Automatic annotation (TrEMBL):
The lineage of its organism: Bacteria, Bacillati, Actinomycetota, Actinomycetes, Kitasatosporales. Signal peptide: none annotated. This is Cytokinin riboside 5'-monophosphate phosphoribohydrolase. The keyword Ribosomal protein does not apply. Residues 1-39 are annotated as: Disordered. The keyword Hydrolase applies. Keywords: Cytokinin biosynthesis, Hydrolase. It comes from Streptomyces milbemycinicus. NCBIfam families: Rossman fold protein, TIGR00730 family (TIGR00730). Its EC number is 3.2.2.n1. Belongs to the LOG family.
Length: 249
């Protein structure tokens, strides 16, 4: 009787920092239970697991871009045709920024994004593409040197802001407008240290600028000072000068 009790008291199992004895000893090992598990999978679609995915995207983005140095984010339409004047303007801007010592960050897709990456790549600069998971696949354009793909827009947007000393906004659609107004809001509310925001292409953007001035500001929905938070230009040299001057370069 005593021997049986002694044998039971000696049973011991260590699971990391946890010690189990007697009836609490589990069969097998932690690794074995993990690798043999065929249980329910619904938990991978629930919010606690999504938080881990979001965290991992921030970690990957920060890790990939931490040593990037001075950079400018360039936005524009994925639908800009190759060879068009807008595409060629993107190439010139990407090239000029690279020659001035800036890495060029885009959404990594086709159109205006590809143009800016192409200019930076051909000038020997660092060409970055931050892709996004969409219902239709775009993929990273061939001129991207460092590419990171994201599931979540808000994580990707953080990378555009965190690692850029300025924004250049080429003609674009809804996504480009979203990026422009988000950048403008962050600067206006002082959520980020002020940096230059440039709308490139006066023929394309002048209607929007007029609406901001004649409707938003005129009706008191925005301050006249908000018009000073961005510049409208058709001059590539002015783009580079603004980025260099306001980033302290």
């Amino acid at each position: 009787m005593g021997n049986a009790e002694d044998e039971r008291t000696l049973q011991e199992q260590r699971e990391g920092p946890v010690v189990r004895r007697r009836q609490q000893v589990r069969p097998g090992t932690t690794d074995q239970r993990l690798l043999d598990s065929q249980g329910a999978t619904h938990w991978v679609h629930e919010d606690p697991f999504r938080v881990l995915r979001i965290q991992s995207e921030f970690v990957e983005g920060f890790g990939a871009l931490a040593d990037l140095g001075r950079a400018v984010s360039v936005f524009g339409s994925a639908r800009t045709p190759e060879g068009s004047p807008e595409y060629e303007a993107g190439v010139r801007i990407g090239r000029a920024l690279a020659e001035a010592g800036f890495a060029v960050i885009t959404g990594g897709g086709p159109g205006a994004m590809e143009a800016a990456n192409k200019g930076a790549c051909e000038a020997g600069g660092v060409s970055v593409g931050l892709g996004i998971e969409l219902p239709y696949e775009q993929g990273l354009n061939p001129y991207v040197d460092i590419g990171v793909n994201f599931r979540y827009f808000f994580v990707r947007k953080t990378m555009f802001v965190k690692y850029a000393q300025g924004f250049v906004v080429l003609p674009g659609g809804v996504g480009t407008l979203d990026e422009f107004f988000e950048a403008l809001t962050l600067v206006q509310t002082k959520k980020v240290t002020r940096f230059p925001i440039v709308l490139y292409g006066s023929a394309y953007w002048q209607g929007l600028v007029a609406w901001v001035k004649d409707t938003l500001v005129a009706q008191g929905k925005a301050s006249p000072m908000d018009l000073e938070l961005f510049r409208l230009t058709d001059d590539v040299d002015e783009v580079v000068d603004l980025m260099t001057k306001e980033s302290g370069g």
